[in-house]
Write a structure and sequence with these properties.
The chain is of the alpha/beta class and about 425 residues long. The chain is built from 13 helices and 14 strands.
Length: about 425
């Protein structure tokens, strides 16, 4: 090309959760059956969506309006319904005009970062969820800026580090919170959210809060919505249907905007996001128009409690295996669909025994030059077929891996957790 056409941030667009699939498919082609523990799709892992939810979707699909366009910002009645939920819940008051629908939160995340001024940076957690960290780094063209989540303190944010980074880097315009967190499963108590809001207020920042797993918070866990503590700080909360119905294929997510008109700059920024949605005409109509009927049904609260209990029990199940192993740190999650294991020490010398010689040869070549935890993940894949995600793929200097709590078959799930734990022990014994 006579001119460079590649965006400065193009090389920052990485998504390890999907990139590991390339390795897994090659391993599969060589004869090793793969067990997919990399992606958070409950339906793919066997969960059956409740029949009453499927019936409502089916009924709405008979309505011709579900095949047409809806308002660019989102279905009017649905936005009104969601704003009323926020207004009844806490002190923050919003209107339907403060809600924007997207084709899944991937679309929302892309627009939230892409329409920021390039020099304006968002400080996010590490370990980081790849969609956020990649989008933030790509928009700026530089490495993603992070604050640490501390595994020695229930994966809570290091607030002192967070303030120091904000104080001494005036390019930081906002703070990202993921609560419940992905990949760690941490759920932040109210005082932590209040502390972050106070920092944003002190340094004149806005907040992005990804609350995708808000309704997958485990029993006896304190839960606070950002809207309950946001005070007068401008903020964007991100919500989705994909994990709580579950309906990931709907690609239906929305943003709730708080305190938009307190700051002129923030309001103009939100306008740019809405204008970008108008260029697309609208997001998918069917999931939007059926949403109030599902969330407003008296059975929905029970639906959420049953699922939260289910995933909490699975977290207990997995933790029992990993809590017995020396040389790792494993913190039982308090919400979400995942669990993370950290190696206290790890080198590039570990191996697992791979019976399939073709797979063994491929893995031995594939691990050359990769991070130490990715080396374990590749050997795990070759030896057992279990496909997990290395923690280094979550923009973290910690070495470990993330797996899901999603497998619906009890016997298979037990085999996965038992095999994972035994593989960790065998790998550590080889180092």
């Amino acid at each position: 090309m006579r001119r460079s056409i590649v965006h400065e941030g193009a090389g920052k667009l990485t998504y390890e959760i999907r990139e590991i699939v390339k390795i897994a498919r090659k391993v599969s082609s060589l004869g090793q059956e793969v067990v997919w523990e990399n992606i958070g799709d409950p339906v793919q892992k066997g969960e059956i969506v409740s029949s009453w939810i499927r019936d409502k979707v089916s009924e709405r699909a008979q309505d011709s309006l579900s095949f047409g366009y809806t308002d660019s910002q989102g279905h009017l009645e649905t936005r009104s319904f969601l704003s009323e939920i926020v207004n009844k819940r806490g002190t923050t008051k919003i209107t339907m005009d403060d809600i924007i629908f997207f084709n899944g939160l991937g679309d929302a995340i892309s627009k939230v970062y892409n329409y920021l001024k390039r020099e304006a940076r968002i400080l996010g957690p590490s370990p980081a969820y790849s969609t956020h960290s990649s989008a933030e780094a790509a928009h700026s063209g530089y490495e993603h800026l992070t604050y640490s989540l501390d595994p020695k303190n229930n994966w809570f944010p290091d607030l002192e580090e967070m303030e120091n980074k904000i104080k001494y880097n005036d390019s930081i315009a906002g703070i990202l919170i993921i609560n419940p967190d992905n990949p760690t499963g941490a759920v932040y108590p109210k005082w932590i959210l209040e502390s972050i809001v106070n920092l944003a207020e002190k340094y004149d920042l806005f907040i992005i809060c990804d609350e995708t797993y808000a309704n997958v918070t485990f029993p006896n866990t304190e839960w606070t919505f950002l809207s309950d503590v946001i005070k007068n700080v401008p903020a964007i909360s991100m919500r989705s249907l994909s994990k709580e119905l579950p309906w990931p294929g709907a690609r239906c997510g929305w943003a709730e905007v708080y305190n938009r008109h307190i700051d002129t700059e923030f309001s103009t920024y939100i306008d740019s996001i809405i204008n970008a949605k108008r260029l697309e005409v609208c997001s998918t109509t069917l999931p939007q128009i059926v949403l109030p009927e599902i969330l407003g049904d008296e059975r929905y609260t029970t639906h959420l409690k049953v699922r939260a209990n289910k995933f909490s029990n699975r977290a207990d199940h997995a933790w029992k295996y990993f809590s017995k192993i020396n040389g790792i740190t494993s913190i039982k999650p308090s919400g979400g669909l995942y669990m993370t294991v950290i190696f206290n020490e790890l080198s590039n010398q570990g191996v697992l025994q791979i019976k399939n010689q073709s797979v063994k040869s491929y893995i031995e070549e594939a691990v050359i030059g990769v991070p130490d935890d990715k080396r374990f993940v590749y050997y795990l894949l070759g030896a057992t077929g279990i496909c997990v995600v290395p923690l280094s793929g979550f923009y973290s200097g910690l070495k470990g891996f993330r797996f899901t709590l999603l497998e619906d078959d009890d016997d298979k799930r037990d085999w996965i957790y038992k095999t994972l734990a035994q593989s960790v022990q065998d790998y550590l014994n080889e180092i």
